[in-house]
């Protein structure tokens, strides 16, 4: 298998809800492992996600977990997750689902470089960039 780069997102207690939401957005198979299933954590921490992985039909892999030590504060995101391609219907569908209930910082629209581009932060606080390019002949 070739090497791949996979985003790994960290959450403050809502990883299950976020990863299930991303399965609704992108489709695919979701694997969730809790701390309790591996004998770690007591009480509410036992149900927190130790490792989650979503494999989508489009070939995306998105991973995530809850932070077991600091569930009181939201994680600090210093990145954005970018999804690019030329399948306009597919990418607009992702945009609609990701931006619903979140905050749009750059509306999905034609940009000066010719592509359709938008930026939003989803309801879990994860920043996303969607770029739709013209199909290559």
From TrEMBL:
This is VOC family protein. InterPro entries: Glyas_Bleomycin-R_OHBP_Dase, Glyas_Fos-R_dOase_dom, PhnB-like. It holds the Pfam family Glyoxalase. It comes from the Bacteria. Residues 5-130 form the Glyoxalase/fosfomycin resistance/dioxygenase domain.
